[in-house]
């Protein structure tokens, strides 16, 4: 019990239902919770004897309105080391920037899943090792839907994309497996965008986010009076998305009874809302996403084999970022370009020393965590490019590098700039490597290579000849 004595949460929230939910979730994690409804009560509570024991704050923007960032600043003035987690319905990157600059530790877009809330609390509760810059922020940038927007040249990653792109043209179910943060949702959206159903409805449902026992109603709907509290008829996701695509995220968390219900629905293509007397036919493409390998859950008896077969017409496995660390430079530059387009931010470069640092980390939160770390670093960067010094806690975690972190590195950058004796390589050699890298990255599409390099196709082919590059390489 001693290790939870410091877990005292102040929840600033004027929504009774949400307050009860967060209090219950935090209680299961060993937190005591103080609920206050507005900024004035929050600031006055910090000065009390009980308030001095508060170790973390969750602030719902709805309780502070437009003054949320000012409240964060005031809380930080009183308790500089206090972790503050901000809940908001806004997906505006500008609000994320303002909240972090005010001192917010984490930024969660509602509805945040129970797992995400628990993860944020656990991160805040870790004594002496809290790593603000590694917190998996949930700020949203506009989703990129095309397969070509998914960056990476690692063979396992490219194979997964090729398999998904081929399956997108059909109508069968697709199972996407991969650790949290590997890009399963983005891939599901790309599949829908490339499918014959692209102009029809698309919806993503996170299995663990469904409150209480409401998942059955969310998926299949219910009739008025079907159960206590069913005051009106509810149309389920299957009916609403008839003709379109339905993504079931974290399918590995589905309960046994819901597994049976879903298996019957997929095998018959018919649904029956709760309390209804008759079934009716629907045409919905299912994309299931799982953090765990479903086949292993089938073998251990935790997942129905018939449902697995129905879901896994095509199975796509996304590799974790630690298994494709060579993609980190391209991903970092891609994210920084997109981050620089957001309100309140500006375009930034990234140095070799920073890329070396990023490549040395194993990224348990995968691509999503990398994006969050770059976003946070960009918020506080005063220069024109991110350096290793912009990731101080990451440097601390990894320890001293064997090489001088200020020395430009060849590792993980994609193109070697320096020879072994520390001198710059000839420009002709660097140019040849850049062209080879571009050909590989764009999979031999020479028109795209030329466009991205900012030269004409004829100029590109002349350079290939002059530099002795085989464009098939």
TrEMBL record:
<dbReference type="InterPro" id="IPR002078">
    <property type="entry name" value="Sigma_54_int"/>
</dbReference>
<protein>
    <recommendedName>
        <fullName>DNA-binding transcriptional regulator NtrC</fullName>
    </recommendedName>
</protein>
<dbReference type="Pfam" id="PF02954">
    <property type="entry name" value="HTH_8"/>
</dbReference>
<keyword id="KW-0010">Activator</keyword>
<keyword id="KW-0902">Two-component regulatory system</keyword>
<keyword id="KW-0238">DNA-binding</keyword>
<feature type="domain" description="Sigma-54 factor interaction">
    <location>
        <begin position="150"/>
        <end position="379"/>
    </location>
</feature>
<keyword id="KW-0804">Transcription</keyword>
<keyword id="KW-0067">ATP-binding</keyword>
<dbReference type="Pfam" id="PF25601">
    <property type="entry name" value="AAA_lid_14"/>
</dbReference>
<dbReference type="InterPro" id="IPR058031">
    <property type="entry name" value="AAA_lid_NorR"/>
</dbReference>
<dbReference type="InterPro" id="IPR025662">
    <property type="entry name" value="Sigma_54_int_dom_ATP-bd_1"/>
</dbReference>
<keyword id="KW-0805">Transcription regulation</keyword>
<dbReference type="InterPro" id="IPR011006">
    <property type="entry name" value="CheY-like_superfamily"/>
</dbReference>
<dbReference type="GO" id="GO:0000160">
    <property type="term" value="P:phosphorelay signal transduction system"/>
</dbReference>
<comment type="function">
    <text>Member of the two-component regulatory system NtrB/NtrC, which controls expression of the nitrogen-regulated (ntr) genes in response to nitrogen limitation. Phosphorylated NtrC binds directly to DNA and stimulates the formation of open promoter-sigma54-RNA polymerase complexes.</text>
</comment>
<dbReference type="Pfam" id="PF00158">
    <property type="entry name" value="Sigma54_activat"/>
</dbReference>
<dbReference type="InterPro" id="IPR027417">
    <property type="entry name" value="P-loop_NTPase"/>
</dbReference>
<keyword id="KW-0678">Repressor</keyword>
<dbReference type="InterPro" id="IPR009057">
    <property type="entry name" value="Homeodomain-like_sf"/>
</dbReference>
<dbReference type="GO" id="GO:0005524">
    <property type="term" value="F:ATP binding"/>
</dbReference>
<keyword id="KW-0597">Phosphoprotein</keyword>
<keyword id="KW-0963">Cytoplasm</keyword>
<dbReference type="InterPro" id="IPR025944">
    <property type="entry name" value="Sigma_54_int_dom_CS"/>
</dbReference>
<feature type="modified residue" description="4-aspartylphosphate">
    <location>
        <position position="60"/>
    </location>
</feature>
<dbReference type="InterPro" id="IPR002197">
    <property type="entry name" value="HTH_Fis"/>
</dbReference>
<dbReference type="InterPro" id="IPR001789">
    <property type="entry name" value="Sig_transdc_resp-reg_receiver"/>
</dbReference>
<dbReference type="GO" id="GO:0005737">
    <property type="term" value="C:cytoplasm"/>
</dbReference>
<keyword id="KW-0535">Nitrogen fixation</keyword>
<dbReference type="InterPro" id="IPR003593">
    <property type="entry name" value="AAA+_ATPase"/>
</dbReference>
<dbReference type="Pfam" id="PF00072">
    <property type="entry name" value="Response_reg"/>
</dbReference>
<keyword id="KW-0547">Nucleotide-binding</keyword>
<feature type="domain" description="Response regulatory">
    <location>
        <begin position="8"/>
        <end position="125"/>
    </location>
</feature>
<dbReference type="GO" id="GO:0006355">
    <property type="term" value="P:regulation of DNA-templated transcription"/>
</dbReference>
<dbReference type="GO" id="GO:0043565">
    <property type="term" value="F:sequence-specific DNA binding"/>
</dbReference>
């Amino acid at each position: 019990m001693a290790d939870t004595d410091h877990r005292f949460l102040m929840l600033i929230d004027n929504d009774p239902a949400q307050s009860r939910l967060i209090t219950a979730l935090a209680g299961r994690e060993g937190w005591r919770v103080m609920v206050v409804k507005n900024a004035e009560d929050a600031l006055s509570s910090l000065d009390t004897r009980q308030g001095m024991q508060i170790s973390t704050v969750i602030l719902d923007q709805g309780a502070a309105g437009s003054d949320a960032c000012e409240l964060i600043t005031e809380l930080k003035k009183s308790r500089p080391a206090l972790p503050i987690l901000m809940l908001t319905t806004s997906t505006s990157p500008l609000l994320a920037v303002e909240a972090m600059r005010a001192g917010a530790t984490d930024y969660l877009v509602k509805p945040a899943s129970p797992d995400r809330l628990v993860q944020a609390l656990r991160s805040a509760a870790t004594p002496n090792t809290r790593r603000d810059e590694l917190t998996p922020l949930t700020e949203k940038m506009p989703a990129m839907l095309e397969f070509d927007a998914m960056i990476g040249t690692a063979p396992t990653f490219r194979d997964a994309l090729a398999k998904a792109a081929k399956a997108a043209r059909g109508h069968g179910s697709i199972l996407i497996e991969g650790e949290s943060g590997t890009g399963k949702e983005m891939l599901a959206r790309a599949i829908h965008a490339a499918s014959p159903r692209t102009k029809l409805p698309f919806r993503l449902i996170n299995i663990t986010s469904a409150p209480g026992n409401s998942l059955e109603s969310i998926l299949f709907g219910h009739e008025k009076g079907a159960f206590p509290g069913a005051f009106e008829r509810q149309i389920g996701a299957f009916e609403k998305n008839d003709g379109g695509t339905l993504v079931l995220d974290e399918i590995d968390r589905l309960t046994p009874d819901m597994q049976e219900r879903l298996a019957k629905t997929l095998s018959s293509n018919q649904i029956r809302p709760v309390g209804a007397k008759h079934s009716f036919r629907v045409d919905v493409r299912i994309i299931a996403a799982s953090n765990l390998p479903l086949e292993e859950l089938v073998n251990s008896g935790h997942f129905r084999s018939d449902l697995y077969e129905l879901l896994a017409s095509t199975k796509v496995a996304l590799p974790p970022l630690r298994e494709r660390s060579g993609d980190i430079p391209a991903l970092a530059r891609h994210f920084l370009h997109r981050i620089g387009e957001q309100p309140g931010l500006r375009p930034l470069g990234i140095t070799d020393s920073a890329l070396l640092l990023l490549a040395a980390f194993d990224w348990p939160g995968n691509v999503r965590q990398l994006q969050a770390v770059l976003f946070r670093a960009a918020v506080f960067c005063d220069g024109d490019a991110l350096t290793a010094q912009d990731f101080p806690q990451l440097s601390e975690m990894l320890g001293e590098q064997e090489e001088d972190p200020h020395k430009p590195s060849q590792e993980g950058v994609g193109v070697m700039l320096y020879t072994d004796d520390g001198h710059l390589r000839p420009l002709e050699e660097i140019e040849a490597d850049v062209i080879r890298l571009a050909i590989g990255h764009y999979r031999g599409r020479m028109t795209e290579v030329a466009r991205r390099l900012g030269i004409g196709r004829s100029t590109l082919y002349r350079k290939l000849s002059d530099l002795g590059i085989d464009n098939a390489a």
